[in-house]
Design goal:
Elements: H1 2-26, H2 50-61, E1 64-69, E2 72-78, H3 80-89, E3 96-97, H4 101-107, H5 117-133, H6 139-157, E4 165-166, H7 172-175, H8 179-184, H9 192-203, H10 205-213, H11 223-248, H12 257-267, H13 278-309, H14 311-324, H15 340-353, E5 362-363, E6 368-370, E7 373-375, E8 380-384, H16 386-389, H17 432-449, E9 450-454, E10 466-468, E11 471-473, E12 478-483
Signal peptide: 1-25
InterPro entries: Cyt_P450, Cyt_P450_CS, Cyt_P450_E_grp-I, Cyt_P450_sf, Cytochrome_P450_fam2
Pfam families: p450
């Protein structure tokens, strides 16, 4: 036993020495808490609220610091100035995708969200082009979203107005599945039950944090194996849909993203350097579906919850809708410029809920001197978006839900560079325009047709976010939709 203890101590010392040597051999990394052998700093962090831990650490180590998730160093950026300097001022260097073992196991580095280098550039550029071709930000997509919003209204009207709706069963996710039209015409690509399981597991802090810090845990039983098995089933289903598209493809009349991608694959089939492969097609579809539905529907559910807490805000939005739009037509995007208060409410919902507090990890694409530090190529970068969205100088009293954060003294909408709900720089969410449109149109359509009634006194509603892993979700709640 004594020999075993000695071996453990020696091994621990060697690991610590290796960590320190790595830091100084490759560059002077920013300061940070001393990592423990093997575990790094993970035992010192609140895995249910990483951003809170970062805020505390930044008080001791400054806005640029280093933490170890396991044995790998991660440079953390805290505050607007540091994040802007990295993601915007030096955006190309900080445009890499950081280490993310859960996603890497699933996508194998393919797709648009978790890919790197030339692959990422080609697939992202192509995806944005297809979005534009299909009318992102134009009337065609707007019409489709309006149709989905009206379907949501009809579904809600069919429910008994005296019966409460479970927040997890409000059909906002179905209204946000407009991404189907973009990806695969009118076909459902992924089973709703399966997708809910994926979203639940991806938000689960316990397995998520541990697996990312210690990827070798994949050999052990656990919920991560459920996620991987589920993805395998989804991948098979997507491949079936792609095969159907191949059989009915008309190169002169592409219907959706799959068609556009298949046409590009055919054009580049003799190019060995082409990134337009079946692997990238399947991974990109999964990326966009996963990112494009859950984030928007969660934001919507949380937004409704906040409006339950603040009926005076909900009433003011409805008053603006009545004044600008009335009851006889649907809200359109042209109305937004004449609805500054409603626009401010939508922005404040996104700011307040802080959906992805630390965003998806970035990485530096080359050795770089950042401030007084030298960060080696490939180092993972974590951006604390909470520190920007909750900056008390830009948003006074940031813990309070207040649309005034986005209004000037005259009541006009006020833009803010600190609004980084979709991240910033080269890796900003590719579907930002679509998400903004969905949130504005669906929320206003609901409030145009319903009064939101809570089951408890609004004063007793606690809107404190539920933190799980890298995502934020609203607490469970119930409400009634009363037709107006």
């Amino acid at each position: 036993m004594d020999l075993f203890i000695i071996l453990v101590i020696c091994l621990s010392c060697l690991i610590l020495l290796s960590l320190w040597n790595r830091s100084y051999a490759k560059g002077k990394l920013p300061p940070g808490p001393t990592p423990l052998p093997i575990f790094g700093n993970i035992l010192q962090l609140n895995t249910k609220n990483i951003s809170k831990s970062i805020r505390m650490l930044s008080k001791d180590y400054g806005p640029v610091l280093t933490v170890y998730f396991g044995m790998k160093p991660t440079v953390v950026l805290h505050g607007y100035e540091a994040i802007k300097e990295a993601l915007i001022d030096q955006g190309e260097v900080f445009s890499g995708r950081g280490s993310f073992p859960v996603a890497e196991k699933i996508t194998q580095g393919f797709g648009v969200v978790f890919s790197n280098g030339e692959r990422w550039k080609q697939i992202r550029r192509f995806s944005l082009m297809v979005l534009r071709n299909m009318g992102m930000g134009k009337k065609t997509i707007e019409d489709r979203i309006q149709e989905e919003a009206l379907c949501l209204v009809e579904a809600l009207k069919k429910t008994n107005v005296l019966s409460p709706s479970n927040s997890e069963c409000i059909p906002v996710q179905e209204a946000c599945l407009f991404i189907f039209i973009y990806l695969a015409y009118n076909q459902c690509l992924i089973n709703d039950k399966d997708q809910c399981l994926v979203n639940e597991l991806m938000m689960d802090s316990s397995f998520f944090q541990l697996y990312n810090a210690f990827p070798f845990l994949r050999v052990l039983p656990g919920s991560h194996n459920v996620l991987f098995k589920n993805y395998a089933l989804q991948r098979s289903f997507i491949l079936e849909k792609v095969k159907e598209h191949q059989e009915s493809l008309d190169i002169n009349n592409p219907r959706d993203f799959i068609d556009y991608f298949l046409i590009r694959m055919e054009k580049e089939k003799h190019n060995k350097e082409s990134e337009f492969t079946m692997e990238n097609l399947v991974a990109t579809i999964w990326d966009m579906f996963s990112a494009g539905t859950e984030t928007t529907s969660t934001t919507m559910r949380y937004g409704l919850f906040l409006l339950l807490k603040h009926p005076e805000i909900s009433a003011k939005v409805r008053e603006e809708i009545d004044h600008v739009v009335g009851k006889n037509r649907s809200v359109c995007m042209q109305d937004r410029s004449r609805m500054p208060y409603t626009d401010a409410v939508v922005h404040e919902i996104q700011r307040y809920i802080d959906l992805v507090p630390t965003s998806v990890p970035h990485a530096v694409t080359q050795d770089i001197r950042f401030r007084e530090y030298l960060i080696p190529k490939g180092t993972t970068i974590l951006t604390d978006l909470t520190s920007v969205l909750y900056d008390d100088k830009e948003f006074p009293n940031p813990e309070k839900f207040d649309p005034g954060h986005f209004l000037d003294e005259s009541g006009n909408f006020k833009k803010s560079d600190y609004f980084m709900a979709f991240s910033a720089g080269k890796r900003i969410c590719a579907g930002e325009g679509l998400a903004r449109m969905e949130l504005f149109l669906i929320l206003t359509t609901i409030l145009q047709n319903f009064t939101l009634k809570p089951l408890v006194d609004p004063k007793d509603i606690d809107t404190t976010p539920v933190h799980k892993g890298f995502g934020t979700i609203p607490p469970f709640y119930e409400l009634c939709f009363i037709p107006v």
